[in-house]
């Protein structure tokens, strides 16, 4: 049995664990906050991966951003800072001496959720509503990566042509309206500067009218995205995850917005079940699937 050293490189964390046959062990995590220097990432990777020395046969990485030819880039370069064009595959191979595969973290999470559902939804999307809005697609039981690693970046599809400019440069993306960051920004206009998405959400749960409008706008944009992905790809199910996606009553708001649409736009809507380990587990399962091809 192959043992994978799975690594999850996110905006504010770096996690690693051993995964054999879909079972995770020895999980470790470093909080990297928002410091996005290449030197610090190299040091953090070396520190984290040193303890796994000689315990794995292969490394697989679920990373934020777009992964093409082992290079890390992003539709929204602000999310990466100095890490734009970071040679993640080469760096990790240099540290570990092991062959390394890299894929996008939302794609990895989609693959984990597909397996968590026992493979019963051959056509499904995973949408994470978090700091940003990420997504991954499984079509005919195959994880969609794309020729340039971009497949599934549905958070950058259009929600409102008159909406705010997104970090990717396009106006009115779902991410610019529905993400935790966007919820916080809209909250700042009402509740004062530096209002976070979490604060707005607490106010929504407490019944505040303005906060309810902001959170409802987010959930409606996600419901429309669910409908668009469903009608484009003939989906069986859509799994919603992420800090906002799994917050109290959010899925119900999405369901409510979706219920006003014709039945053909309404797939089975499910909460994510793999939580914070989705990237690690999904990446390892994907490496396993690649090796069996
Ligand atoms: Zn965008």
CATH T-level fold name of the largest domain: Nucleotidyltransferase, domain 5
CATH class annotation of the largest domain: Alpha Beta
Spatial order of the strands forming the largest sheet:
3-2-1-4-7
Can you give the helix content as a percent range? 25-40%
Would you kindly provide a brief summary of this structure?
It holds the Pfam family ROK. This protein is α/β, with parallel strands linked by helices and 293 residues long.
Could you explain how this protein is built, in words?
This protein has helices at residues 38-50, 88-96, 105-116, 175-178, 180-191, 197-205, 209-233, 250-259, 278-291, and strands spanning 3-9, 13-20, 23-31, 58-63, 66-68, 71-73, 100-104, 124-129, 133-139, 142-143, 237-241, 268-271. The strands form 3 sheets. Strands 3-2-1-4-7 form a 5-stranded mixed sheet, with helices on both faces. The protein has a 5-stranded mixed sheet with strand order 10-9-8-11-12, with helices on both faces. The chain folds into 2 domains: 3-107 and 276-291, ATPase, nucleotide binding domain (Nucleotidyltransferase, domain 5, 2-Layer Sandwich), CATH 3.30.420; 118-272, Nucleotidyltransferase, domain 5 (2-Layer Sandwich), CATH 3.30.420.40. β11 (237-241), α8 (250-259) and β12 form a beta-alpha-beta unit. The protein has 293 residues and is α/β, with parallel strands linked by helices. α5 (180-191) packs across α6 (197-205), α5 (180-191) runs antiparallel to α7 (209-233) and α7 packs across α8 (250-259). The protein is built from 9 helices and 12 strands. It is globular, with a radius of gyration of 19 Å. Helix content is 37%, strand content 22%. It starts with a strand and ends with a helix. Bound molecules: zinc ion.
């Amino acid at each position: 049995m192959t043992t994978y050293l799975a690594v999850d490189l996110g905006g504010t964390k770096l996690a690693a664990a051993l995964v054999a046959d879909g079972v995770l062990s020895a999980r470790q995590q470093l909080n990297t906050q928002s410091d996005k220097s290449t030197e610090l990432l190299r040091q953090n990777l070396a520190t984290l991966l040193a303890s796994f020395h000689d315990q794995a046969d292969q490394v697989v990485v679920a990373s934020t951003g777009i992964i093409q030819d082992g290079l890390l880039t992003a539709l929204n370069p602000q999310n990466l800072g100095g890490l734009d064009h970071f040679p993640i595959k080469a760096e990790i191979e240099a540290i570990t001496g092991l062959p390394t595969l890299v894929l996008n973290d939302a794609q990895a999470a989609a693959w984990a959720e597909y397996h968590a559902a026992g493979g019963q939804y051959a056509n499904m999307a995973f949408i994470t509503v978090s700091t940003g809005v990420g997504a991954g697609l499984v079509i005919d039981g195959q994880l969609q990566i794309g020729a340039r690693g971009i497949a599934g970046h549905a958070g950058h599809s259009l929600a409102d042509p008159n909406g705010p400019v997104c970090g990717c440069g396009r106006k009115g993306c779902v991410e610019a309206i529905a993400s935790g960051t966007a919820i916080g920004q809209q909250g700042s206009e009402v509740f004062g500067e530096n209002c976070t998405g979490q604060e707005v959400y607490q106010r929504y749960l407490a019944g505040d009218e303005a906060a309810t409008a902001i959170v409802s706008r987010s959930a409606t944009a996600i419901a429309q995205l669910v409908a668009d992905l469903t009608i484009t790809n003939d989906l069986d199910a859509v799994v919603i995850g992420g800090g906002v996606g799994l917050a109290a009553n959010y899925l119900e708001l999405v369901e409510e917005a979706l219920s006003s649409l014709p039945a053909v736009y309404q797939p089975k809507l499910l909460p994510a079940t793999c939580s914070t380990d989705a990237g690690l587990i999904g990446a390892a399962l994907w490496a396993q699937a690649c090796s069996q091809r």
